[in-house]
Write a structure and sequence with these properties.
With 513 residues, the chain is of the alpha/beta class. 37% of the residues lie in helices and 11% in strands. The longest helix has 26 residues. The protein is globular and about 85 Å long.
Amino acid sequence: MHARRIGAVAATAVALVAARDLIQKRHALLRNFPVVGHARYLLETIGPELRQYIVTSNEEERPFSRDQRSWIYASAKEENNYFGFGTEVDVEHVQGHAYIKQRTFAGALPDAHDPQSPLPSAKVLGGPRGRAKAFRPASVVNISAMSFGSLSGAAVTALNKGAAQAGTMHNTGEGGLSPYHRNGGDLVLQIGTAYFGCRNEDGSFNLDKLKDVVASAPVKALEIKLSQGAKPGLGGMLPGAKVTPEIAEIRGIPVGKDCASPSRHSAFGDVDSMLDFVELLAAETGLPVGVKSAVGEMGFWQELATLMERGDRGVDFVTVDGGEGGTGAAPRIFADSVALPFRMGFSRVYGTFAELGLTDQLTFIGSGKLGLPDNAAVAFALGADMVNVAREAMLSIGCIQSQKCHTDKCPTGIATQNPWLARGLDPSSKSTRAAVYLRTLRKELTKVSSAVGVAHPALITANDIEILNGDYEARTLAGVYGYKDGWGELGPHLAEEITALLTGSRSDWTPAV
């Protein structure tokens, strides 16, 4: 009797769904195939998960393949992150694949198996321009810009605590410095076009508010965001429904009202006035100041390098973001087709400064899928001094690449403001995983450097890596990207200093006078 009642209820429910499908006019598929047509929408919804776990091979899935995700997950959990039986890469035919050339002999090298071994930057951030608070970053791997609002408070907390444990820096993103960023990790405060956290009511920049924010937290550097790889030249919109009292207070905007971020800055309008702004921030805070940008037309970079050649003004670092970089939400055309990929964009920017002999005068930071050892090694060989990681750090705290970031329905509670979803992420345990991942990536970079016969990844040159450019043919990075002799390499003094620091012949991390 009970079973009959259940069957009758189920049949009634199916009949109601069928009737609704036949009557509605929005979906032709459901009118023609009532009830069963819903299977199509179900499969479409879970398509990314099906492709990740059932359909694609270990090397096919994008943005990150199953092998790449597996390495990050295993590294973060301190599990065995080795692979057995040989490579799955079709090594003679995969166009663009990088091959690192090991050396048979080498001089003194650091311990490549010490998970706690330091891997500081080869350059002192702000040192060449004499900033009052110049410093040598303790880690060449740091956490890239991801705002609270894009990420949940629990996710930001986990990343910041992980940064503190691993001795890395954590970029706040343009959404302002939140309470979740105040868990011990050193910070890079990002200043976007909306000047969140340091703005007047009309959206213009407020220097006094910036100084108050800087004084309230362990801010080590300021980064002026000009654009990012996944949506360059595009301002964002924060819908009023998402502007909670907490977010409104952090960002300095009205509660419950739409907030549009301009596509460009109002505090400056060209390279000359931008450098004035940079010098103002550096003078008022004492901090190193840099810019972050995707790479499009090169006129901006050429003018920046030309003005810096004079020596009176300049940025302390440039963060070059590749077009393959991630985002919480972006129009498809921007994510797919605006801005150059990292290798191409970075090499052009670096070459612009190299032509004028300026590369030792500023720090180059790369971002855009560089949280994997092979990609990071290529970045260092092209001349990067540090790399920032974003989605890889998210994967380390539980992201499953469901690609729901733009829907506020992230199933792991990372890229959402939904309290019920965010509660599933435990910042305490996930922070440890983030820290272990960051340390593991540094250790892998030390191993790769040792294989090449150098003490630090910044000493890997553009001739130490070859790129497959056709069946059975390869060219060096230098050849592919038109590097001249010495490009991508540290000056002799910097190279000697970082080698001495890592091989034990010097114990201090201050630059030689």
